[in-house]
Amino acid sequence: MEENFEGQILTWFDHFHAHPEVSWKEFKTTETIAGILDELGVSYKRFSDVTGLIAEIGEGEEVIAVRADIDALWQEVDGVWQGNHSCGHDANISMVLGALLYVKNKQINKKIRFIFQPAEEKGSGSIAMIERGALENVSHLFGIHLRPAEELPLGKVAPSIHHGAGIFLEGKIIGTDAHGARPHQGKNAIDVVVALHQFIKSIYLSPFESYSVKLTRIIAGGENMNIIPGTAEFALDIRAQKNDILNKLQSKIEEGMTGISKLYEVEIQWNWVDYTPGAEVSAEAEAIANEAIRLVAGNEVAAPPVITSGSDDFHFYTVKHPEVKATMIGVGADLRPGLHHPKMTFNRSALDLGARILAETLRRA
After folding, report:
1. What residues contact 177, with CB distance under 8 A and at least 6 apart?
2. Start-to-end C-alpha separation, the chain
3. Contact 164/241 with Cβ under 8 angstroms?
4. Is the pTM here over 0.70, yes or no?
5. Which of these CATH numbers, 3.30.420.40, 3.60.21.10, 3.30.70.360, 3.40.50.1950, describes 165-276?
6. Least buried of 37, 48, 278, 310, by fewest C-beta within 10 Å?
């Protein structure tokens, strides 16, 4: 009789969904995963300075790895600020643990490493795991993630997700305050922000590339409406489908801010933060996942690769270790209204399917 762990996967999901923890504070989540692994007799390694853990089954020199991100978002839900699994990481944990169940008692001639990674939402959890040996001797790496309904319908599974690259800029304009009646005596930071806004809208790269630059925060002025503010803080959100296009955008933005600073005779300070690279998908890893989808669920379930403007720190693994062949499987789950929406919902029947396909992928890698 074929094994069926759907009930267990859903029980795990219910627990993780009800106990969200934000980045770097996934203490109880880590404890719960460790307890599950203890019950399954699976060895693992924990860390004294970061949350998350790394588990292994099997024997051999070759290591196939799979990653589950374990953190939740901090957001307002019905007027209350709280941890919230609106990005589906509770589903990812459950599918990866489910894959472990489905593959655990099968004949395997290699090690399979399960990376339960903290702080994906901060864009730095993957680097912490890399620094703690997560990719040692790894040849192939796989991930899995539910996709919004607009990207992938329920009952479809894609062998890869081509995330875009993203980075943020935090900036400060340092001019001179002035009386509203004497604007010539100051350096108006709002004028500089307006110039910056006009500049970023005039950045043109090839129309065949996907990219965007947006002002996402402006803080200027105080309670007095008759003071022209000399100081302002601002933030930019910069995204591109390809890593090299993101690099070009960064160069153009820095050149533009330098020119605006000279033109308006003000100082502009800036700092780049929270860089997340775009996907570097291995054709070999993608083919393995595609074969597993078709074997487990049929040819009609297999979908083309998903191309999305969203980002994921999963891709730091291959940026830091380009020799590792990696892909992230996308699972259609009728997920609505979208990832990071505080009321995000999805069809839970997708979890068992995702776990089975991931298990077969790990076996075939």
Report:
1. 186, 227, 228, 229, 230, 231
2. 25
3. yes
4. yes
5. 3.30.70.360
6. 48
